[in-house]
Amino acid sequence: MLTAALTGNYFADNLKKRTAALKAVGFMLAEISIMIEYNSSDVYEIAEKLSSDSRFNILGFPRELNNLLKEKENDFSFAWNAAVKSCGHGFLTKDDTKFICSLGDNLGKSGVEGQLTNIRLKQKELDILISEAESSFAQKAKLYRSLGVLLGAFVSILLV
User: Fold this and answer.
1) How far is the C-alpha of 41 from the C-alpha of 13, rounded, in Å?
2) What is the pTM of this model?
């Protein structure tokens, strides 16, 4: 019974982690925007700053990105995509991962205004993903927990 209940909690927690990770991506976009607009930071400075910021630990990939950029002379967007994919989170959907990968495609490839415009567009897309994640959590988390408990009770009855 305990295992079934834990399984329900596992899936409910994944929904919560997804929402938290997407919100962390939002904070990351805001931070990148500030670094570009006020510091004229290049992509290597951005990667280093993101990797040392604890707000992005749930994402995992900023540290991996910084490591990839330090180890080899990788193209930034290639390193970004490789870092995101190597830190495969079980709680992010394929669309979430695809979106996060797309964030690195245009960084450093245009002027300050072009990058800031792209970030603003990406923030709007992210807002939709966050809204979907919150809605999914609200609808499904209680269901997952209840099903876990009910499944555990059913198995207990079968064993008796």
Assistant:
1) 36
2) 0.79
